[in-house]
């Protein structure tokens, strides 16, 4: 089942020069990048993105963190893309994440954990438009799609 999911490379991924490594992992797995941009997330956009956490005690620190530096926003497409990305990212807390996952290999924190990925189809449908207009999401075919 072909799906789309939002992936954010958070400020620590950008500042630690891990963007290429992380993007490469998703591409090597067979996911297709159909939209991508680098930006500095505004507080307004961050509040909209993290509105589901508004009443939680970590909300303000989450907003402060995600707006503290540039991020990369991407839409990835592929069979069961949401599930695949979630497995590749690993557990939220980098200390608990399995080696071989992005967080397991590079993160030591629950907050500075390098990446965000939509946790469901509903979340992806809500999150993607926060970062991308329909005109920014490309439809194209990769030459190796039949092999993946």
UniProtKB/TrEMBL annotation:
Its cofactor is Mg(2+). It holds the Pfam family NDK. Keywords: ATP-binding, Cytoplasm, Kinase, Magnesium, Metal-binding, Nucleotide metabolism, Nucleotide-binding, Phosphoprotein, Transferase. The active site is at 116 (pros-phosphohistidine intermediate). HAMAP family: NDP_kinase. Major role in the synthesis of nucleoside triphosphates other than ATP. The ATP gamma phosphate is transferred to the NDP beta phosphate via a ping-pong mechanism, using a phosphorylated active-site intermediate. This is Nucleoside diphosphate kinase.
């Amino acid at each position: 089942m072909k799906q789309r999911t939002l992936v954010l490379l958070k400020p620590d991924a950008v500042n630690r020069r891990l963007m290429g490594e992380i993007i490469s992992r998703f591409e090597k797995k067979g996911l297709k990048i159909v939209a991508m941009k680098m930006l500095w997330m505004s507080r307004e956009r961050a509040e909209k993105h993290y509105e589901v956490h508004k009443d939680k005690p970590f909300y303000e620190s989450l907003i402060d963190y995600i707006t503290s530096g540039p991020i990369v926003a991407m839409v990835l497409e592929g069979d069961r893309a949401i599930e695949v990305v979630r497995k590749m990212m690993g557990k939220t807390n980098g200390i608990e994440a399995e080696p071989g996952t992005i967080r397991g290999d590079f993160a030591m924190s629950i907050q500075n954990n390098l990446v965000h990925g939509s946790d469901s189809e509903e979340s992806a449908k809500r999150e993607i438009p926060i970062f991308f207009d329909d005109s920014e999401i490309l439809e194209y075919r990769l030459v190796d799609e039949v092999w993946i």
